[in-house]
Amino acid sequence: MGSTKTDIESLRSEINHHNELYYQKSEPEISDVEFDALLKKLQKLEEENPELITPDSPTQRIGGKAEGFKPFKHVVPMMSLDNSYNLDELRKFDERCQKLADGRDFDYVAELKIDGLSLSLHYENGILVVGATRGDGETGDDITPNAKTIRSIPLKLKDEYRERMEIRGEAFIAKSVFREINQDLIAKGEKTFANPRNSASGTIRMLDSSVVASRRLDMFPYDVLSGNQKAFETHWENFKWLEKNGFNVNPNRRLCSGIEAVIDFCNEMETEKDGLDYDIDGVVAKVNQTDLQDEFGATTKSPRWAIAYKYPAIQAMTRLLDIKIQVGRTGALTPVAILEPVELAGTTVSRASLHNQDEIERLGIKLGDWVSIEKSGEIIPQVLKVIESKRDGSEKEYQFPTRCPVCDTPVVRPDGEVVTRCPNETCPAKIKGRIAYFSMRKAMDIEGLGSVLIQQLVEGGLVKDVADLYALDVKTVSDLERMAEKSAQNVVDQIAVSKERGLQRLLYGLDIRHVGEMYSKILANHFRSIDKLSEASVEELDEIYEIGKAVAESIHEYFRLERNQDLIRRLKRSGVKMEVDENSSVNLDERFAGKIFVLTGKMENYTRSAASKLIEERGGRVSSSVSKKTDYLVAGEKAGSKLTKAEKLGVEIIDEFGLETLFA
DNA sequence: ATCCCTCGAGTTCA
DNA sequence: CTCGAGGGAT
User: Fold this and answer.
1) Whether this model's pTM surpasses 0.70
2) Within 479-518 of chain A, which residues have Cβ less than 7 Å from strand B?
């Protein structure tokens, strides 16, 4: 026989061959047991000769233990899709696309929306190097070893690949496999998964990839990128290429020459979906031509060239046991339906928000009523309606409270507003809410200050506002129940650390009406210190591009209140930083921050939307018409009336290369 | 005056 | 995630 090296190589090609038979042709020639034996043999040989291990070896699908996951920043953000819940919304989507296409011909591709979790796979020179979850769309987890356990994901591309390619797809666990996994878990006395989707997303995050391998995840790919661009001229070609490279491409897809054909596909699949061995939650329609996709662009939330059509959500019936009132950070009284627990789409639902008094009246709901509920938008349960025919007279009318259930202050509901609020500024519920908000991750990020501790601090009278946090010492905290010295020390340290978070996070944490993540960033960047901001007039605030009258007045009002000025003075005295942290990312590019750009004409190297994005990333603004506020007009080929107008107004005019120099 | 986009706010569950 | 309101753009 030949050398170990050739043995290893022939084993690898044999395994790859069986893999392909199994996944692409669905005609395995050998049993799973035999397959595993081959794999084990290869593993043993490789262990003895580690120098011969290559990254694309089938054994690399089953890595060893990983130690937590590194974050992975997506090259191109993974956006979610706009949803539609009826066929007319699909037709509206079509109208928008027709308008954007402006007479040019295009097709749609209709495909299934798999109910799993999105993955992004990166190939360099044809070799799989990274597998990552979607995460928040910007950054996900690097789960490469786990992605490699998915047998239908090739470790190596074979057909005309480019240097850097990214494949996106939906990972899932087949319904049949899901049932086996749960039986297994029951046998071992472990907790079972509620549905295939949960089991897939739980599995992909497991650290031990040999367990992941046993769970037999699979993936249906749906997109191919080359670098940061679309890889092919049409979406339909993506599928052809994916098939040639051995991916498990979902066969249920259709090239449609108009929206009505997409609708036919939706209707056909609705009758067939229960017979499939995987869960779907709808159909996705995409514009087929990628040049049009690029041109249509995207809103911050989703691309304008694709839409998801979702099948009606599953409903269930249950009884309304009680209505509880929650008092939030803003004093809003929110009624919550306490339901008899019922299974719905894989989770047990026991509560649902009733939003406000009007909603209760609209539903005409009484205590003890049977109600139908549904899950709209994946998780959040909604009470749809009361089943009046099930009433037997024992139901009781519900009275919306006139006093705050927490502090007994009479509640108010201003004319024209739907929310009922507790007006008492010292209401413990509001204090707790504000402290929790202050310590949230996006605000001052105080680790260890959880709801239980906050409850104790507020009820013990130790903390009445956020400034009191900085006066806490270890002894006071460790005297509380269930607080050992060590964890008390920890919390006190964390509170001290938070003094350095900087102006942006502080502003966010102060809970000024209308000022959230975005506006606190803008304000911090503009004013640099809380004193400057505090002195700003309504007019000064209103002049800031993104800020309008209502927001300006709310900010001004906040700083006019003595109570707030006092709070800020006390925070300052404790050493809380009131200026922009020069090291933080609040600092925007000086050349772009707050500047308004107008693009006109055709550029050589950028599409309009790509250039806009680059400008906005640097803190600039892109407007569509020239005015005296415009800072730069970027004039490309064949610039027209905008150029004339800019010249007349004396706006600085730069060309594509001028813009490029600014980017550099 | 109207349309469309963003940001903020409130909420559920594993 | 969805809804409502603020704010630009047209």
Assistant:
1) no
2) 513-518
